[in-house]
Amino acid sequence: MWFTRSATQLGDVKQRRRATGARPVGAAVVMCAVMGALAVAQTQKPPVTQPPPPAAPSGNTTTSVPGNTTASVPKGVPLTPDYVIGPDDVITVVVWKEPDVSGDFTVRPDGKISLPLMNDISVAGLTPDQLRGRITEAASKFIEDPTVTIVVKEVNSRKVFVMGQVAKPGPYPLTGPTTVLQLLSMAGGLLEYANDDNISILRTVNGQQVSYPFSYKAVTRRRNLHQNIELKPGDTVVVP
Questions:
Q1: Per 3-state DSSP, what percentage of the chain is helix, strand, and coil (rounded to 5)?
Q2: CATH 3.10.560.10 region(s) of the chain?
Q3: Which class is 159-239 in CATH?
Q4: Which of 182, 176, 170, 191 is nearest to 220 (CA)?
Q5: C-alpha to C-alpha distance for 240 and 219, rounded to whole angstroms
Q6: Is 62-154 in CATH node 3.30.1950.10?
Q7: CATH 3.30.1950.10 domain locations along the chain
Q8: Contact indicator for 237, 169 with CB cutoff of 8 Å
Q9: End-to-end CA distance of the chain
Q10: Percentage of the chain lying above the pLDDT 70 cut
């Protein structure tokens, strides 16, 4: 009897559900609804902004003087410590916190530069470190404990010359060790009617003109290799 009533009651419940269109809500349906809500919430989050990349170096060619707010030292031509300053070189002089006596100065043909307050100072024949000491001494008469920096900004004094029967005569910068044969190659080689056995190198030694012989034919045939000397600033190679 109990089973019959229960079955009857269950049938009534099913009939009422079919009539109202109701459906049982299971755990799977609830879980799907929760996951859908989470997905919508995630899509509505504001985008994460990445910090901007660090700025690239500006390529500035100056190095600040420590503690100095009024001047900077430009990077000059890489030189050996024993480089000797000569005419036409451009020298940068920086006196710390004294912009009025700092600046770029071209070495005159007489080997001097003119500095404010200090007038003419001989610089030709000095290394940058020797010049720093000389300017420091001169500046100490007007400035208390001056801090001086010297930079060779342009090297124009180290030149050699070739003239005569070569393809490209003229001055050539002496940027490194250079022999006579190398200079002739830089000048495009000898012309057809060059007297290659009587080439000479003219050099000033202690105020006197000295001539050194050079035989292109012999040197290129591996003879008299001692004639292929290393050139010095101011040398002139003459190809008749």
A1: 30, 25, 45
A2: 159-239
A3: alpha beta
A4: 182
A5: 17
A6: yes
A7: 62-154
A8: no
A9: 141
A10: 68
